[in-house]
Structure formats: structure tokens, C-alpha cells
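Incident log, entry 3
Record: Transposase (293 residues)
Problem: checksum mismatch between cached and fresh output.
Input:
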Amino acid sequence: MATSNDLLIKQRSVIEFLAAEGCSAANIHARMKTVYGEMCISDCAVRKWTAHCRDESAEKGHVYSTLRALQRILTGDESWVYHYDPECKAQSMEYRHKTSPSPRKFKVVASARKVLFTVFWDMEGQTVNSERYISTLRALKLRLRRVRRDKDSILQHDNARPHTSRQTQDALRHLELTTLPHPAYSPDLAPSFYYLFPQLKKYLKGHHNDNDEKVIADVCRWCHGQSSEFFADSVRQLVERWRLCVDRDGDYVEKQSAKSEAVISPWCYGVHRELIGSVMLSMYEMEKSFVVM
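Fresh output:
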């Protein structure tokens, strides 16, 4: 014979099932009363557990919709990369005995030659005048039609003049690209600035590249070498950074851990390798620029 505790567990399971079907608390209690008779839990308890089940279901649905929204975000920006960028102090350290003479170091500066690196990516692994940016957006739209045709993308970029000019806004409407609102002067809310570019620049320090082509190959090799979770983690951090921004009434968030504690399902970690699988080279005003998307 089942114990009272076993019976309670069974009845809670029945409540969860019927609540998932959309039955009201009164209907659930009436049906359970017919089956369990005097052993049926009270109407108050049924109402409590029905509400609990529905709240839990709504929360799961909210999390799912939030994750779906994150998957739609496509972020992008631009940064200069040098033919040679000196190692930082930590990278150039060497082991020496305490009695060894102090090492002689020469001051080294970054090379004058550089290449403009433009990148577009999403949490699945996937900027300069307005004309240049618009031409990049057109190429981006063509790529999205091929590799992301099943998703309604949301473009996340900062408020630099080339991104907010009237020409760019007209182009965005014409290309039917939805943009995510971004507060002015907020690199703390731009994944490329707080996550991607610092990691890339750290990797490039100390690398000697003799020409533009070698710089481009070096950057692309690094991009292709990153894991799927590398890109997903940047967008997870964005959620917590948004929250910090709201909590601080819009104040800038700097040098503070903004890593989200949220658990992201494994399906969020897949990487559209095609988005970072092609490099387009263009010449702009005698400056070489390349795009990775």
C-alpha cells in the first residue's frame, strides 16, 4: 500500500500534467477528488501547485525566448591591426637569477603600417566613412542570405558616425536590417571591444608580418581557430552587461566582471563557420581594408 508521501508525490505529478494541458485549478481538483476521494489533497493545495507549475512553465518560456533573441544578434565593428605590435611587459619577461644583471631592453613601438580589420559575427561564431560601411553592409546581407536564411538577424553596432549617418540608416532600411539600440559612447556594451579585439590584439603582439597579406592571414587564422563557445561566451556576457548598465542608470561599466551566471543550452554553442570563413579584400583611399564575416 502506498504511503501518504508516495500518494502526495503522485497527486503533484497529476497536477503538473493537467496544468500543462491548460486545465483550471478548480477542474483539476474536481477530477482528482473523483479519483482519490478522501485522500485527495485540499483545493487550496491544488491551486498553489497549479500556479507553481504555470509560473515555472512561463519562466522556461521566457528563458527560451531570451536565448532565441540572443541568437538573432549579429555584432560587428572595426579595428586597426599593425604589421608589428610589440609584446607587452608580461609577454617579454624572462627568468633570471636574483644575482643576474638587469636585462637591457630597447624601446619598441608599433609599426606605422596597419590594416583596417572589419568583423561581423554572432554567438554562433559568426568598422571609415559611410560609403565604406554601406558597401560592407551590402556584402554582409548577401552572406546572410546564404548562411543564415532561416534567421531574422538583429545587427548590433555602436554609434560611430559611419554607422548612424543618414546614408547608412537609409541603406539599413533598404537592406531590411534591424538594428539593436546602443547607448552612445558605450564600448562596454560592444562585444567586439570588450571581448574579441582585446583577445585578438593580445595574440598579435610580438608577431612580425612583412606585408598586408600576412597580417590578414594571421588574423583569419586566429578567427578560425576559436571554439564555438568562445563566441557564445561573449554574447552571454552582453546580457549581464546590459543588466549592470540598467542597475547603474546607464553609467559606463569598466574593469568589472560582467560574466553572466545564466546557463545556456548546448544548442547555443554551434558555430556558423561560414560567417567567418571568407575574407573580402578592398582598397579604400590607399588604405587596405579587409572584412571577416
